[in-house]
């Protein structure tokens, strides 16, 4: 009798939306501050449609991290014994109980969600602001970024039914802000004047680097061979976003002029998601996309390159990063190296969301892919130069399970070929703790730093960048003209290309790829880098961090030396 009574009461409550029948709710995520530069405009219109996503609690995320570290740490018995797609998915798939619990909650509320990640850990559905406010005790407001006008619909807190808290990792988009610089390559490529050769004559600098940075200069600086790759299954993926189209005619002209020793017909294979396209109209060519394709195909000689372009039809409120990661994870054989020259400030992203995306990079690493990103172009001020008092880490560079690439420039005045680029972002995450593989390198730096910048950054956070490569005065072909560009956007594809060529040499000897790089970089490979010890990365009205001997938060461990890095990789692989 009693049971029936409850049953009737709850039916009644559901029908009328009576709060008496409502599940108890628990605050799941909240934020106390609005990121710098955003102002609240008022409540979001109740009818606005939101593309909500729910990340379900994964069955064994720690198991994934453990497996990733085993396959990525030289000397471990499982080094380079990468996991299959199915093995990785088994760690991150939710339990049946979790799926059922969340699905039935949505069903009770008239919502049918679809699965939007290969492992089934993300659900997606459309609803209105008013319904979302009701479902999650949220208060969605419109926020406008003063400088760019970019709007975000954000709630400062949301709740989930208490009995579902253990089954829901996060609901998104809720407390995260859109990247306000969404219409620019996030690791920007400031366009400088047309090629204007500088006077860089110095014994310290390779002849090929005296006017502009070209593939020949990169080859000379880092000892990168021109010998073609031979293993066709060893591939390199370049991320494309925000309608940045990679132009094939620009690539052909670039190769004709600057890699005359290889076929000018060498090109990339296009893959698209979220309605991505790659129109070839000259006027639509994008600087970032041209740069990223020219400095992969132009450096990683004969490594098959995929240009993986996310269209504007992404609803992940993360500029497509989440969709892109899930797209690549859905492939049976994702590229062994992935480079992305976009990013945003970490303070716009919720900790749970940051962790979730970082988990996707762990999955890629566990399967044998090296995930590289530009560190950002605003020095210690973050992904772009902004007003700031405290230093801003960039995202996803704060994620320990990817490799962040900072920038240098060729400069004769220091007596060595390279010095730090002042725009090179670096610093310390407020979300991710410092991983053990970098703790010795980072504490040595912090000791040297003393009290400089004290209170402006988080000493216990994951420190970045990990490595650096040249990123200023870089010559590309854009809309059939020579252009000079600068940014960590140049550095990530260059470093990624070097990793790809090393993977090719390993594969030719029957070995697996390097996969998640950091334990190798901070360990066996640390001594192979050319240490950059001059310059700093100003921002937030400070001089930023100074580069020092050893790791530093401007240029990481330094710039690569191909022969030494290859030898370290071969030794680690047991060759
Ligand atoms: C470039 O520098 C060299 C050595 O410092 C000097 O001899 C030469 O005159 C300079 N050239 C120009 C064009 O400034
Ligand atoms: C500093 O970083 C740690 C992670 O290492 C984080 O838990 C903590 O909240 C951060 N502190 C601030 C003030 O953000």
UniProtKB/TrEMBL annotation:
EC number: 3.4.14.10
Peptidase S53 domain sequence ranges: 212-572
Active site, renumbered: 288 (charge relay system), 292 (charge relay system), 489 (charge relay system)
Cofactor note: Binds 1 Ca(2+) ion per subunit.
Subcellular location as annotated: Secreted, Extracellular space
Chemical reaction(s) catalysed: Release of an N-terminal tripeptide from a polypeptide
Keyword Calcium found: yes
Listed Pfam families: Pro-kuma_activ
Single biological process term from Gene Ontology: proteolysis
Entry-linked InterPro entries: Peptidase_S8/S53_dom_sf, S53_propep, Sedolisin_dom, Tripeptidyl-peptidase_I
Alphabetized Gene3D superfamilies for the sequence: Peptidase S8/S53 domain (3.40.50.200)
A Gene Ontology molecular function term of the record: serine-type endopeptidase activity
Cofactor(s) essential for the protein: Ca(2+)
Binding, Ca(2+): 531-532, 550, 552
GO cellular component, one term: extracellular region
Segment forming the signal sequence: 1-17
Keywords: Calcium, Glycoprotein, Hydrolase, Metal-binding, Protease, Secreted, Serine protease, Signal, Virulence, Zymogen
Identification of the protein by name: tripeptidyl-peptidase II
């Amino acid at each position: 009798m009693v049971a029936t009574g409850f049953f009737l009461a709850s039916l009644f409550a559901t029908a009328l939306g009576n709060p008496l029948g409502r599940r108890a709710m628990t605050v799941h995520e909240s934020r106390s501050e609005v990121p710098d530069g955003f102002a609240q405009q008022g409540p979001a219109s109740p009818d606005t449609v939101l593309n909500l996503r729910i990340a379900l609690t994964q069955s064994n995320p720690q198991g994934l991290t453990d497996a990733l570290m085993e396959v990525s740490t030289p000397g471990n018995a499982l080094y380079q014994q990468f996991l299959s797609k199915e093995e990785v998915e088994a760690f991150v798939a939710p339990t049946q109980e979790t799926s059922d619990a969340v699905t039935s909650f949505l069903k009770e509320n008239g919502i049918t969600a679809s699965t939007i990640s290969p492992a089934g850990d993300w659900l997606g559905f459309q609803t209105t602001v008013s319904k979302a406010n009701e479902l999650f005790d949220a208060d969605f407001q419109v926020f406008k970024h003063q400088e760019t006008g970019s709007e975000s619909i954000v709630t400062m807190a949301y709740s989930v039914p208490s009995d579902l808290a253990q089954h829901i990792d996060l609901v998104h988009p809720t407390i995260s802000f859109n990247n306000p610089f969404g219409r620019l390559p996030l690791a920007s490529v400031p366009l400088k004047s047309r090629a204007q050769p500088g006077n860089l004559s110095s014994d310290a600098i390779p002849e090929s680097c005296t006017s502009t940075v070209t593939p020949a200069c990169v080859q000379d600086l880092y000892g990168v061979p021109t010998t073609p790759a031979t293993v066709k299954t060893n591939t390199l993926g370049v991320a494309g976003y925000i309608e940045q189209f990679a132009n094939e005619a620009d690539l052909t002209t670039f190769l004709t002029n600057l890699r005359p020793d290889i076929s000018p017909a060498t090109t990339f294979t296009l893959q698209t998601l979220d309605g991505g396209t790659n129109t070839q109209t000259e006027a639509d060519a994008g600087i970032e996309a041209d740069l990223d394709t020219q400095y992969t195909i132009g450096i990683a000689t004969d490594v098959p390159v995929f240009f993986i372009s996310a269209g504007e039809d992404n609803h992940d409120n993360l500029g497509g990063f989440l969709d892109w990661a899930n797209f690549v994870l859905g492939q049976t054989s994702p590229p062994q190296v992935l480079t992305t020259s976009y990013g945003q400030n970490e303070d716009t992203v919720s900790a749970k969301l940051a962790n979730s995306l970082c988990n996707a990079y762990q999955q890629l690493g566990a399967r044998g892919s090296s995930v590289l990103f530009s560190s950002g172009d605003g020095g210690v001020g973050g992904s772009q130069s902004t007003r700031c008092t405290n230093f801003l880490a960039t995202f996803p560079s704060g994620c320990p399970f990817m490799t962040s690439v900072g920038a240098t420039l060729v400069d004769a005045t220091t007596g060595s070929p390279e010095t730090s680029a002042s725009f090179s972002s670096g610093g310390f995450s407020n979300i991710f703790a410092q991983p053990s593989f970098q703790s010795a390198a980072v504490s040595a730096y912090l000791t040297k730093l003393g009290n400089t910048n004290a209170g402006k950054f988080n000493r216990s956070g994951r420190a970045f960048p990990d490595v650096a490569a040249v990123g200023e005065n870089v010559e590309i072909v854009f809309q059939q003209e020579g252009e000079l560009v600068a940014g960590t956007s140049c550095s990530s594809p260059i470093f990624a290309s070097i990793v790809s060529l090393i993977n090719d040499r390993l594969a030719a000897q029957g070995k697996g790829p390097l996969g998640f790089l950091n334990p190798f970089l901070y360990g066996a490979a640390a001594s192979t880098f050319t240490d950059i010890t001059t310059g700093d990365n100003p921002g937030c009205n400070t001089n930023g961090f100074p580069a020092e001997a050893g790791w530093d938060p401007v240029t990481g461990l330094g710039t690569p030396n191909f022969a030494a890095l290859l030898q370290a990789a071969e030794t680690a692989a047991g060759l």
